[in-house]
Amino acid sequence: MRELDPRIYSMQELTQFVMSNCDEWRQSYKDNYKERFEEYYDIFRGFYTEQQKTRPSERSKLISPKTAEIITKQVDAIDEACFGRTKFFDIKDDLDLLQPPANATDEELQQFQAIQQAKAQDRQGLEFLKNKLTEDFAKQKVRMDMGEVLLNAAIFGTGIAEVVLDYETEMRPQTRVMNGAGVSGVEDVDRAVVKLRPIMPQNFLIPPTATDIESALGVAIDEEVAPHHIQLLQERGIYEDKDVGLGSATDTDLETDPTLDTQPKHVIRLTKYFGMVPRHLLNAYLQEDEFVDSLAEAVETEEEEPDETVVMIEAEEDPVPGTPGESYYVEAIVIIANGSTILKAIENPYMMNDRPVIAFPWDITPSGFWGRGLAEKAYMSQKGLDSELRGRADALALTNVPMIAMDATRKPRGEDNQIRPGKTILTNGNPRDVLQPFNFGQVSQITFAQAQSYQDMIEQATGSYDMMPSNVNRTAASAVSMSLGSTLLRQKRTLVNFQESFLLPFIKMAACRYMQYDTTAYPINDLSFTVSASLGLIQRELEMQTLAQLMQAMPADSPLYPVLFKSMVELTSLSNRDELVQTATAMMRPDPQAQQIAQQEAQIRAQRVQAEIAALAGQATESQARARKTEAETVAIPIREESRRIDSISSLTKADNEIGPEDKLKLEVAKSGVRERELALKERQATEQQ
């Protein structure tokens, strides 16, 4: 009797580990989210179901498009806000080109120039990388896929996508030398590409206690695919060549497509698991093929013996989880078909050891993975609005097509009881006595006001309500800014969630995939990405208005003018935007020759100012001298006048001989005072002249 290796017990345990966790997570989703998500989807698509009835007598099947309209508008706004520019991302670097240091030696100057040339080459490489990423994203229609992710987030509260690494054949022109002559042709090149595949929340599995993808034990994508999809991947060697059989959409507990009346008959349930698995289970599976092949070879070479049987023995102990120094769990990718057949099981091959699934919430909910979307916010108001519309439609139907009562004893036998325009009804007697309509009156106008109130509630709940007062003058440019600003504030939280949790992680993940699997076009480098269109069109409108106002109020020769001009150009979508930005940047850099000229001009201006100051000082001195002379003359005039008056009096008194001794004394005192004042004035003038 031949004994098999105990490791064979672990070959199916990997499948059991993955599927048992997935079944538990699926049941948690069904218990908590399945019914609600189905209603959100029906509201957005306008699908009516019997569960949406608000009363047993309800007959109308109307669903208001109000929530769907708001979802579409806000998704479009976020999409434009993030992808309004041609390049929606940028790469950070520390490669600022500096000016040479002052008074540098020739050797120092050569070293500085060499460093600057290296920085310039690195900057060109980063620019090439950015352009290459942008080109590859455009080829794989990444923006379109992100739009679908945004739409799922608005409806269900969470947008989810799988980052798929695939290989495509790219045709490139080339020239070959044949018989000494160049022959033009094309070359088929297989290269790695990164795709973004949106995932419906109904097909995504995550532990109920997890708050994000990276911290969870694992996540899974559980969906139904066509058989040919599996076959193509098996032919390419991505999946193992195993017979998975055919299933039916009704054989599994996966959700069917509500848009299809007839579900596909033959599908394969494919479970993609990304997360941690016990290391010994993965190792056992990876050794399975080698072990089974060696066992088959041994059986073929052995001589057949009638009493020989092959049995499996139980292991005395559980398989060793791992070797010393190894962790119990290992990051792995496990893909299972129909819940039983492993098509792929490998250790996570990506160099950053990241899981190829990203998600973001429309609005964050406390301590939970699933976010809060617009459909959830508007749910109760939408239900009230739908009920109001259906009730009004039913009332209008009773008013326009009222019920008719007929006297059966006066109506001919076999007569059709249906009432329609142009129909002739035979009666035995007066028709007014035989037929009697029930009049229900008219539909109240209050119902229209009630419906409008529900619509306002939906707008308020979703953040779409126009907060601008009705009495504000909306014709002014400031009114436009107010409107844009309020819209921006209402969507800012979602913008931040999308950029930080989804957009930037995807760009970095895609760049790492390209650097790992396409080293020719993407050399390995430590990169830091930023979102260049973070606030998009809404914010750009506000910023451009502000910059335009500042530039109008600032002279063109101001040092801040080029800075404002550069900022304004960066916000535009012009075809030559990069060229204009480079020109503006060059304008802001100091020019040594211009600086020297400016210094010389400043010196000339200083000398000119000094000469003007000296001239003004001379003029001031001359003015002061004239002022003093004028003042002296002004003071001398009364003295001279008084001296002449005294002389006149003296001459008159001598002629008349009529003056007494006292008068003579007074006259002499006056003459003496005048002479003292004249002497004092002359001394003052002499001092000032000195």
Characterize the structure shown:
This protein is α+β, with helices and mostly antiparallel strands and 690 residues long. Among the domains are: 378-403 and 443-465; 406-437, no CATH class; 594-689. Helix content is 51%, strand content 14%. It has 17 helices and 14 strands. The chain has helices at 13-45, 66-83, 106-139, 142-156, 227-235, 279-286, 288-301, 374-377, 379-400, 431-434, 446-462, 477-517, 536-553, 561-570, 577-588, 592-656, 661-689; strands at 2-3, 90-92, 158-178, 181-199, 204-205, 218-225, 268-278, 310-311, 329-337, 341-347, 357-361, 404-406, 435-437, 528-530. The strands form 5 sheets. A 5-stranded antiparallel sheet has the order 5-6-7-9-10. Helix 12 (477-517) packs across helix 13 (536-553), helix 14 packs antiparallel against helix 15 (577-588) and helix 16 (592-656) runs antiparallel to helix 17. The longest helix is centred in the last third of the chain and has 65 residues, at 592-656. Residues 1-9, 303-319 and 467-482 have low confidence and may be disordered.
Give descriptors for this structure:
five-stranded antiparallel sheet; alpha+beta; about 50% helix; 17 helices; three-stranded antiparallel sheet; about 700 residues; flat
List the helices and strands and how they pair.
Blueprint: E1 2-3, H1 13-45, H2 66-83, E2 90-92, H3 106-139, H4 142-156, E3 158-178, E4 181-199, E5 204-205, E6 218-225, H5 227-235, E7 268-278, H6 279-286, H7 288-301, E8 310-311, E9 329-337, E10 341-347, E11 357-361, H8 374-377, H9 379-400, E12 404-406, H10 431-434, E13 435-437, H11 446-462, H12 477-517, E14 528-530, H13 536-553, H14 561-570, H15 577-588, H16 592-656, H17 661-689
Parallel strand pairs: 1-8
Antiparallel strand pairs: 2-14, 3-4, 3-11, 5-6, 6-7, 7-9, 9-10, 12-13
Helix pairs in contact: 2-4, 2-12, 2-13, 9-11, 12-13, 13-14, 14-15, 16-17
